[in-house]
Structures are given as structure tokens and as C-alpha cells.
Amino acid sequence: xxxxxxxxxxxxxxxxxxxxxxxxxxxxxxxxxxxxxxxxxxxxxxxxxxxxxxxxxxxxxxxxxxxxxxxxxxxxxxxxxxxxxxxxxxxxxxxxxxxxxxxxxxxxxxxxxxxxxxxxxxxxxxxxxxxxxxxxxxxxxxxxxxxxxxxxxxxxxxxxxxxxxxxxxxxxxxxxxxxxxxxxxxxxxxxxxxxxxxxxxxxxxxxxxxxxxxxxxxxxxxxxxxxxxxxxxxxxxxxxxxxxxxxxxxxxxxxxxxxxxxxxxxxxxxxxxxxxxxxxxxxxxxxxxxxxxxxxxxxxxxxxxxxxxxxxxxxxxxxxxxxxxxxxxxxxxxxxxxxxxxxxxxxxxxxxxxxxxxxxxxxxxxxxxxxxxxxxxxxxxxxxxxxxxxxxxxxxxxxxxxxxxxxxxxxxxxxxxxxxxxxxxxxxxxxxxx
Amino acid sequence: xxxxxxxxxxxxxxxxxxxxxxxxxxxxxxxxxxxxxxxxxxxxxxxxxxxxxxxxxxxxxxxxxxxxxxxxxxxxxxxxxxxxxxxxxxxxxxxxxxxxxxxxxxxxxxxxxxxxxxxxxxxxxxxxxxxxxxxxxxxxxxxxxxxxxxxxxxxxxxxxxxxxxxxxxxxxxxxxxxxxxxxxxxxxxxxxxxxxxxxxxxxxxxxxxxxxxxxxxxxxxxxxxxxxxxxxxxxxxxxxxxxxxxxxxxxxxxxxxxxxxxxxxxxxxxxxxxxxxxxxxxxxxxxxxxxxxxxxxxxxxxxxxxxxxxxxxxxxxxxxxxxxxxxxxxxxxxxxxxxxxxxxxxxxxxxxxxxxxxxxxxxxxxxxxxxxxxxxxxxxxxxxxxxxxxxxxxxxxxxxxxxxxxxxxxxxxxxxxxxxxx
Lengths: 434, 422
What we know:
Order of helices and strands of chain A: HHHHHHEHHEHHHHHHHH
Low-confidence stretches of chain A: none
Strand order of the largest sheet of chain B: 1-2-9
Helix content of chain B: 55-70%
Number of strands of chain A: 2
Strand order of the largest sheet of chain A: 1-2
Mean pLDDT of chain A: 85
Structural class of chain A: mainly alpha
CATH topology of the largest domain in chain B: MetI-like fold
Largest sheet of chain A: 2 strands, antiparallel
CATH architecture of the largest domain in chain B: Orthogonal Bundle
Number of helices of chain B: 13
Oligomer: heterodimer
Shape of chain A: globular
Radius of gyration of chain B: 30 Å
Low-confidence stretches of chain B: none
Structural class of chain B: mainly alpha
Distance between the termini of chain B: 55 Å
Shape of chain B: globular
Radius of gyration of chain A: 30 Å
């Protein structure tokens, strides 16, 4: 019976897992050295990282913040014992960072672009963070497109008000004509009234109002615009203006009206098929030729027009993606409620389609924002164009890496945070229906 | 005795054009067409009257005038006495060269980075994520000028190769010289060359085709065809008997032996770059502008392709990998036989648009002085002749044609590899 020699009657205490499976060693074994191939990869990566950091970190940590010229920096470096004058010359950034950001904008008016971009954040907040900001703020968002150019370019306040009045007049005409005649006629008459106002009446009326009641701020010429401010301005204006154009183009491309559809498809495919630089060539050389004789836009306005056209073709494709992603039932549901085309678009389709396409809109914005550097090729002073101008200064002749590094850092911070926001949005939208 | 009457004939009234949905779409289209024509007519009218005022009516005659500028990196023979048309042709070829090279390297880099980003190795995955974010979030123009600056500032000048104890030496057994003026690589030469075939006579489109190259391509094509036939025969034997005959040695021989014989007959040798005076002579000179553009476009686009590859691989359900593991396949076989072929269907459409982007971004060549079509037709030719309208429109049409061709070819390929659903 009792031929069992030994029976343990009490539980053994729990032992710690082997040291090679926990803590840093265990983590490294699993994540860095799990096989011979992984080990080789890890060692190679460590070596590469070490060499890159060994080259860059001493260069960055260079005591030249107060340098006044490249030769001065070299003397500082030699005095500090950096062999071979190997080190960054940060003096150029200290001296010129304001210029890299604001271009040649008058320095006593720097508050205006700053205010414009701070208010931009306030205007975008109800759109971007719709769950945390009261939707009454949307009124400010609607007014903002008129405040923004006024703050940047300055001049009389009656100009933006006259531009705004065009929308009001068009809206009123549409409202009365739609009630009295038909919706279609209302749209046509409303657009026509607004165009007549902008083309013929807005300038004299605002001029007259200005002579009666001169309210305004100091005007700044376009050619003083430059630096990072110029990039952001082009990017923001292009995206803001391209959104409505893109919606129209996307709807046109989806529509059953053949002629409208082919005009839209032709426009979108043409713009998407050519590089932005050719459109900028159009802006710099041809746009004035296309306009009635005597018209002379300034170069920034021409660039804004072409970049807007460029962005709206891409925007149209993004929104078309959003429209296509909506389940068919949404369209049919709208039809079965008896809504007409525009009611269905306004109440059912667009709110959902735009919500789906926000990440795409953000990435289009990042793309356009990065592409604004191309304006340096046609001679505008964006950060890259300014870096050439700074190098033309005898003090800073020969500076390369510091300027490129600083510009790259600015762009990186901006674009990276935008793309993170877009990913956050994607996650937030994924938890919804569908 | 039917008492049925026809329904009352509806009279067409003018207002039905607006209120009746049957006619309204027609009305809208006519109005849209009218507005579009009006806009186009307005633009054309403005253009013509402006051009008339400037005294330069639309005229493509400048194409036959001598260009008068040099193109340093070119595929075909060209001198500054050649016409603007030939200069534009050189530019077009340069655009195609850099786009082709860029697409290949970007794809290779992108696939490697995309796969490594999913690696179980923590460090490698993080490094690749850093690479992708770094390259995606900085403008490509900045990368191009940055790479150009690296090449110019950090590489040794040709004179550093001179002297008894030179500061710099040629790499790869004295065959490649990497200098700040570009890279000199050995060029293939033939002592018993077949010569060139001159096409299109002396016109601007003249085109010299090396018969040696043609012979090599023909032999290579035939060898590959034979090699494929041998593989197909092996496939048939395997299907019939279950045993696969070893064919690798025959297939290698079929490719290598005829090529070796041909090269021996043609007297193939390599022309090495040599230092003569202050610069290198001989060999093929790849200029910095080409290398910088190629490298920057590849690195930049690779970051986007890596994300596409990663998304494509992640779109394949985990069950596929697990099933492949259950079959006993190794991880590289799982990747190449199971995951990638399926992921390809997700990857290809966005890949096409990235190839298009790379081709369009190659127009930034103008920033580093590489003479592509933007640099020739849209750059020097435009500035010299003052024919902005003709040059820019033609430039756009060329890019449009390239884009449509690429997307046409790739869409056709996409159709071919698409999952055939029945």
C-alpha cells in the first residue's frame, strides 16, 4: 500500500522566472537577439546609429550661438578645441531665424501674422475638435477667411467687408429668386449677382466707403512676404479655397450629367498629370497673358491661384473617395425621404463624406504645405529661397547644414504633428459606425 | 368598343426646361457647356490679344533654331549647335532616365524598409519608423538640395586623387572614382565593335543605336526564352512524375555561355576612368546632379512605398501566415510565397500613384541643374526664345503624356495580377 516513497504535502513556493527571461535581458533576448539574423541586424543597427550620432551630436553641440560670421564661428570652435573647425555655426540661426520665419515683413507688424495664425487655430478648433468646442464658434470660422487676408495684407477694412457682402448679396438673391422662381434659376441668379458685385461694384463701393470712413491698418506689399509665413499662407489659403472647389469637382465627377462630368474629369486628370512646377511656371509667366490686357496680379496672388487649382484637383479625389466610401443605403435613404439632390447632399451625404475624408484632407494639406517650397524655384523667398539669400551675405557665405537643418526641422515639426493629428482622427472615426 | 382614350398629350412648355426633371438635366448641361465655352473663349481671346500686343504670335518655328547651350549629362550625341527640338529630346530622355532609375531603387528600398518595419526586432522596426517619418515630413526639394550639398561638400575633389600619397583613392580595385564632380564608373567598350546604326539621318531626332547593345539584348532575350522553356519542361515532368529534374546548371549555362561567347567575339573590355590633369577622363561620368536627384527621389519615395508595403502586408489576415507556418514554411518563404503575392494586390494601385509622383517630382531637377525636360524646354529654351506659352504648354503636355502612359501601363498590369473572381 505504502510503496510510494515520498509525497509532497505542501506546495512549493513560487519561483522567479529564470533571469534570462525577464527584465532587460529577457526583453533583449526576445526583441533584439531572437535569432542569428536578428542579432546581426541589431548589431549592424547599433553600429550605424552609433556612427551617425558620433558624427552629428558633437557637431550640434557647438558653442557658437553668439557667432557673428562664419569666420568668427571658426575662431570660436578652434578656441574651444573642436578639431578641424568641425561644428555647427549656430550664430546664423540666432541672427536670421526671425527672417526665416517672417521674411521681409515689417518687424513692427509681426503681431499681425502671429495673430492671424493664432486666430486660425481658433477658427479651425470647432472643425478639428468638434466634440470639445461649442459649435457656435463656427460663425467665427465662417468669418475668418475675410479676417485672415486683411490681417496679413492690411489696408482698408472695407475691402474684406465688400468681399463678404458679395456672399450676402448672392445668398439673398438666391433666397428670393428660389422662392419666386425656381431653385435652379435662384442658383444662377445668385451666382450672377455675386459675380457682378465682385467684378464691378465691390472696388468702387469699398473705395467710396474708405474715403468717407477711413478705417484700416497699414498695408503690406506681397513682395515683403517670405519665409515660413509665406509657406503657411500659401498652404492655408490653397487648402481653404480648394475645399469648396474640390467638393464641386467631386460632385461633378460623380454626377450623371455627362458634359459636367467630362469637364470635371478633364480638369482633375490634367492637373494631377502635370507637376506643380509647371503650374508655377504658368503663374510666373502665363497667367497675366490669360487675363484681359492691362491686368497685373502680383506674383503671390498668381501663385496662390495656381496652387489652389492644384490643390483642388487633389482635394476632389479625396472627397470622391469619401463619397464612394459611404454605403449605398445612405443615398437611397435620402431618396426615399423625398429629399432633392441638394438637400440630400447638404443634410445626409456631405456631412458624412467630409467626416470620412478629413484624414485625406489633412494629408493633402501636408502635401501642399511641403510643395510650397517649390515657389523658391520661381524666385519667391520661402525658407529655401531665403537660405540662398542668406548665403549671399558675405558673413554667412559657406553656411549650408545649419540653414537646411533648421528649415527641415520647422517643416518636420509642422508636418509630423499634422500627420499625428490625422492618425488620431482616423482612430476616432474608426470607432463609429460601419 | 374600347372607350380608352389616349392620356392627354402633354404640351411642351418652355418652363418645363426648368421644372421638369426630365428636361432639367439637359438645361443644366447646356448652361454648363455654354459657360465653359464662354470661359475658354474669353481666355483664348485674352491670350491672343495679349500675344498680339507683345508681338509674338504662337509659333513653334523656334524649335528648328540652334539651341546654343550645352547639356552636360545626356544619353545621345548633342552639341550646342543642335536645335531646340533636339535639346528638348535630350531633356525628355534625361527625365525618363531619372524616373526609371528612381522608380527601381525606390521600390527596392521601399519594400525592404516596409518589411523591416514589421520586423520583430525592436530596434530595427523603430529605426525604420524614424526613417519613414523623417523622409515623409520634410519637403522633397529640401532633400534634393540637401543630398546635392552632401555630395559637393563632403566628397573629395579630383585633385585629391593626385600625387604620390593622394588624400583620396579610387574604390573597387581602382575602377570607380567618387569625386565631388560626380562618380566615374568603367564603361563597356568593344574592340571589334559592330558600329552604330544611324536612324533618322541628320534630323533633330537622329538616334544612334549601338549594334553591340542590340546584339547583346537579342542574345540575352533568346537565352532567357530558352531558360524559361527548360523550366516549363521541368514543370511538366514534375506534374507527370512527381520528380523535378535538376535544371539550374543547364539554365545557368544557357544564359551565361552564349553571352560569354558573344562578348569574346565582340572583344569586350572595360574602359576605366583615369586621372588626366585636373579631372578624370574615360569611363562613364555620372554627374552629381543626376546622382543627387536620383538618390533624393528614391529615398523620399521609398518612405511612402514602405508605408504602402506595410499596409499591404498588414491587410493580409494573420490566418494566412499561420497556415503557412503550419505547412512548415520558413519565414522568408512565407513572405515570398504566401504574404507578398496577396499583398501585391493591395499594394499596386497606390504604388502606381507613387511612381507618378516620383516622375512628376523629377521636374525638381531644375534645382540642382540636372538638364531634364523642365531644365531644357521649360528652362533655358524658354528663357532664350521668350516663347513662354509654347514652351510651358508643351512641357505640360509632355508630362501629361508620360503620366497617362505610366498609369495606363500600370493599370494594365494591375488588371493582370488582380484576383480573378468567378
